[in-house]
Specification:
Elements: E1 5-9, H1 13-25, E2 32-37, E3 41-43, H2 49-53, E4 62-64, E5 74-78, E6 81-85, E7 90-93, E8 97-99, E9 102-105, E10 109-111, H3 119-122, H4 129-148, E11 157-161, H5 165-185, E12 193-198, H6 209-221, E13 224-228, E14 232-236, E15 239-242, E16 247-249, E17 252-255, E18 259-261, H7 263-267, E19 277-278, E20 291-293, E21 298-299, E22 301-302, E23 307-308, H8 313-331, E24 347-351, E25 357-361, E26 364-367, H9 369-395
Parallel strand pairs: 1-2, 1-9, 2-5, 9-20, 11-12, 11-17, 12-13, 19-21
Antiparallel strand pairs: 3-4, 6-7, 7-8, 10-18, 14-15, 15-16, 22-23, 24-25, 25-26
Helix pairs in contact: 1-8
Bound molecules: flavin-adenine dinucleotide and nicotinamide-adenine-dinucleotide.
Length: 398
């Protein structure tokens, strides 16, 4: 009898958790397990604001896939997914086609553009290793260029669009880096402007008011100018235009104003909302018993709050593990039954630079160094889970 072919698309938090669970649960030759990813490495998206600002080496924010998978049980294909043809049970890659019996889609997210003119062309809007490297180099180049063209003060103006988690974590990190950049390039700190522009009336909407107050004060003390309650309506070579007509001339605009599911979802004609497929309790795409969607490509409704769960690594990881367990059972003729997916939100921590953070762990509020330690602990736990003590010591920040 031919053995079933399980294909996992994307080696992010969801995809890696699915693969690691499958390789633990299944014997070699029980199923063909194939992982497809565009890079040869898995990167820690949750760390990317640090290499992007230049405060953490990008190499420590990634790990080679071959070092964490068991090649006797899992075949890795490095390629880009272009489209999924569900009727033919086939995936179209850049260089070939791959057939599947069971498919797990974990391709992550892309920037939400809201149709804003100039956004894709003039802003830094991707969060991956290459974009982080590029942004770090660009920031340094702005400082270096300013020294040769001192009349262009806009080179030292940085606008971060969106004061959600990504925007705040990045702008805080950049604020921490600025003194060192000023020293290196002999630039007066007073000339450097950091703007955080948010459509909502506060930073980090969703956190408790006292934690928001703490974060606001921390950002202001680092020299971040907060513009709240006004969305950006246009981006250009010169900078940004706000909804009230005000223009900010800036050499750098970083877009962190929200995400949507990977465009492969819409291209493959799955019914979706902002590129996210509303899955059932088994993470199945509507109408398919053998296609599962996890992580940022999936939409799961929090019935209590009557809104979708946010796209987070925490949930992506849990989805990956759940689908790994269910698939192991399914290929054995549902020997252990199927479990419905129910996310467990352990807490949330937002970093405010190298030495500061805020967080909610259960009902407990954390600020300052205790929150920083919890954030590091989350990173260490993840590294330990995917690569043991060795990876934790090699890639963790201590
Ligand atoms: P990803 O982890 O994004 O992985 C997708 C994978 O698919 C990648 O390896 C990518 O290269 C690959 N891929 C994409 N397209 C293709 C293609 N066409 N073909 C082949 N491969 C492809 N969440 C938290 O819970 N805690 C945090 O602290 C946190 N911090 C964050 C910090 C930043 C700066 C950002 C941007 C996000 C953060 N998030 C955090 C959100 C979290 O990173 C995402 O929710 C999570 O990465 C989603 O996991 P995923 O598996 O769906 O996708
Ligand atoms: P987000 O959707 O959480 O925040 C985007 C922010 O941009 C919102 O506050 C929104 O009001 C604002 N915005 C939208 N359009 C705008 C405009 N035109 N001008 C100005 N502001 C605008 O997106 P994110 O911060 O990228 O986070 C994405 C996901 O990743 C979320 O689920 C988040 O929880 C998760 N994440 C978590 C962490 C963490 O846990 N530490 C860190 C980063 C990201």
């Amino acid at each position: 009898m031919p053995i079933p072919k399980i294909v996992i698309l994307g080696a992010g938090y969801g995809g890696i958790a699915a693969v690691l669970t499958l390789q633990k649960k299944m014997k070699a030759r029980e199923a063909d397990i194939i992982l497809i990813n565009k890079n040869e490495y898995h990167y820690f998206t949750t760390k990317l604001h640090e290499p992007a600002a230049g405060t953490f080496p990008h190499n420590k924010a990634r790990v080679d896939i071959k070092n964490i998978i068991n090649s006797k049980k899992v075949k890795f294909i490095q390629d880009t997914v272009l489209e999924i043809r569900t009727r033919e049970r086939t995936i179209i890659l850049k260089s070939k086609k791959v057939a599947y019996d069971y498919l797990v889609i974990g391709l992550g997210s892309e920037p939400e553009t809201f149709g804003i003119p100039g956004l894709m062309k003039y802003t830094f809007n991707r969060w991956n290793i290459n974009s982080a490297r590029q942004l770090k180099e660009h920031i340094e180049y702005q400082f270096a260029t300013y020294r040769n063209e001192p009349e262009r003060t806009e080179l030292l103006t940085f606008v971060v669009a969106g004061a959600g988690f990504t925007g705040i974590e990045f702008v805080s990190e950049l604020a921490d880096r600025v003194p060192a950049l000023c020293k290196e390039y002999d630039v007066d700190r007073e000339l450097v402007r950091l703007f955080s522009v948010e459509a909502n009336s506060s930073v980090l909407p969703g956190f408790e008011p006292d934690l928001v107050k703490y974060a606001t004060a921390a950002l202001q003390s680092k020299g971040v100018d907060l513009i709240l309650g006004i969305p950006i309506k246009e981006c250009s070579k010169e900078g940004v235009v706000l909804a009230n007509g005000k223009k900010i001339k800036a050499g750098t605009v970083v877009w962190a104003a929200g995400v949507r599911g990977n465009s492969v979802i819409e291209r493959s004609r799955f019914p979706s909302v902002r590129g996210r497929v509303e899955v059932d309790k088994y993470l199945c795409a509507p109408g398919y018993e053998n296609v599962f969607v996890i992580g940022d490509c999936a939409l799961v409704i929090d019935r209590e709050k009557r809104r979708p769960y946010p796209p987070t690594a925490q949930i992506a990881e849990q989805m990956g593990k759940a689908i790994g367990e269910n698939l192991a059972s399914m290929v054995r003729g549902n020997k252990y039954g199927k479990k419905a997916f129910r996310p467990v939100i352990r807490g949330t921590v937002a970093s405010l630079g190298r030495q500061d953070a805020i967080g909610m762990i259960g009902r407990r509020k954390l600020t300052g160094y205790p929150a920083v330690i919890v954030k590091r602990f989350i990173d260490w736990r993840y590294l330990f889970m995917i690569g043991g003590v060795k990876l934790m010591l090699k890639k963790g920040s201590f």
